[in-house]
Design a protein that fits this description.
By secondary structure, this protein is of the alpha/beta class. It has 8 helices and 14 strands. The protein has a single domain, classed as Nitrilase/N-carbamoyl-D-aminoacid amidohydrolase. A hairpin with a 6-residue loop joins strand 6 and strand 7. Bound molecules: 4-methylsulfanyl-2-ureido-butyric acid.
Length: about 325
């Protein structure tokens, strides 16, 4: 029997600093309802979907940033999104800033099933940017200041929470640029990877880098990750102009062949859908990317033994 799912992306247009959580949640609920009416089984929201991309703002005292973080999930603000998911019978992926009861801070995402229960949590591993104010940059990217690197690894959940049995994984934004992210989930037979992103249209350290090149890198990483691990990938952007800082859109759904199935057209709140059959991941997993037959781990040690590159032996 085919394992078909209707997969939706709920791209968010800009969320300004001054926007309330309530107003932002209203927008997410509108998109959840819209996607469900079009038959969605699952809706992928963005990274830090509840707030503006606050790591672009520097605060000497990080306590000033406390209001961007959720201390529980769900909580009185977000409960209605969970209730609506249960009412509509649709699952979702949601990114948000997490503060733990012990006072740790993570850039986090969750998978919520069709009954409104959280079935998986992920904390962003690859935090881009810097920890201190950098006067050399045209704007700041302070994820290393406000978050700790994720401590949960890259788990994959075998779940029928979206209505059919599926192997589900997550990552967040900059994680997509790292092949290790996809491969660790590929090694757990992942079939659908969901992620959100907030990607500036400009490189704060290279003014001449074009937006076209930056969009190309987005597609390149998502399509390569999908193809090389024979998995669907669903990537949702928060985009448009947030308080003078532009982020590109191009949210997309990628097939295990690496082909694009759907791409957003605007830089606003926008829902796109694709009907997918999870069994389409099988061919790649038993042929060119049959890891058990073809991987040569005796040659891969450097990947986990060192972080930075070293010079080659001179001849
Ligand atoms: N949110 C996020 O991870 N954005 C990064 C920007 C990298 S530039 C410091 C990204 O990889 O898209």
């Amino acid at each position: 029997m085919p394992r078909t799912l209707t997969l939706a992306i709920a791209q968010s247009g800009p969320v300004q600093k001054a926007d309330s959580r309530e107003a932002t949640l209203d927008r997410l609920c509108v998109m959840l309802r819209d996607a469900a009416q079009q038959g969605a089984d699952v809706v992928v929201f963005t990274e830090l979907a509840l707030t503006t991309f606050f790591p672009r703002w520097y605060a000497e005292d990080r306590a000033e940033m406390a209001h961007w973080f959720e201390t529980a999930m769900p909580n009185p603000n977000t409960q209605r999104l969970f209730d609506l998911a249960r009412e509509l019978g649709v699952g979702f992926y949601l990114g948000y800033a997490e503060q733990t009861p012990q006072g740790q801070h993570f850039n986090t995402s969750i998978i919520v099933d069709k009954t409104g229960n959280i079935i998986g949590k992920y904390r962003k591993v690859h935090l881009p940017g810097h920890a201190d104010f950098d006067p050399e940059r045209s704007f700041q990217h302070l994820e290393k200041r406000y978050f700790e690197p994720g401590d949960l690894g890259f788990p994959v959940w075998a779940s029928d929470g979206f209505g059919v049995p599926a192997n589900l994984g997550m990552c967040i934004c900059n994680d997509r640029r790292w092949p290790e992210t996809f491969r660790v989930m590929g090694l757990q037979s992942v079939e659908l990877i969901m992620l959100g992103y907030n990607t500036p249209s400009q490189n704060s350290q290279a003014a001449d880098e074009s937006i076209e090149l930056r969009k190309f890198h987005n597609r390149l990483t998502l399509q390569a990750g999908a193809y090389q691990n024979a998995t669907f990938v669903a990537a949702a952007a928060k985009c448009g102009n947030e308080d003078g800082h532009h982020m590109f859109a191009e949210s997309c759904i990628v097939a295990p062949t690496g082909e694009l199935l759907a791409v957003t057209k605007t830089e606003e709140d926008e829902v796109i859908l694709a009907q997918i059959d999870l069994d389409d991941t099988a061919f790649g997993k038993v042929s060119v990317f049959d890891f058990a037959r073809h991987r040569r781990i005796e040659h891969y040690g450097l990947i986990t033994e060192q972080t930075g590159a070293t010079p080659p032996k001179s001849i």
